[in-house]
Specification:
This protein is an alpha+beta fold. It is built from 3 helices and 6 strands, in the order E-H-E-E-E-H-E-H-E. The longest helix has 18 residues.
Length: 134
Amino acid sequence: MAPTAFNKQPQRIYILKSKEALQKMDSVHPCRYGAPMVILVCADKDAASNFQGGNSYLMDGTIVATHMMLAATDIGLDTCWAGVNDVEQTQKVFNLQENIYPICFLDLGYRSDDFKSLLGNKKRNSLDSMINIL
């Protein structure tokens, strides 16, 4: 379980495993990379916490997705976060109610032997370039 604002737990998780569900994903996003299963992470805007003039549904859903990625990696699966490019089209294709906001797709599977990163040889930034101690 992942933390959510005031423990409202607005996340709504859809497991895309059938051929039909995966084809729907392919119709709204090009980045499945042959994954045999995809998790569509959504949040119910009406169930999320309203605080400080905002709603927590995006933060809550993002925290949940991140925890799922870490858990999948911990058991040896590879994941790829694919943001939702067209919210309205994704809601339509997956028959989601208006209050159910699609946040991301998480591709799940095992990396192929001939995997080549889209980033090439790009190295990660050093921690010193991102962290400031005050």
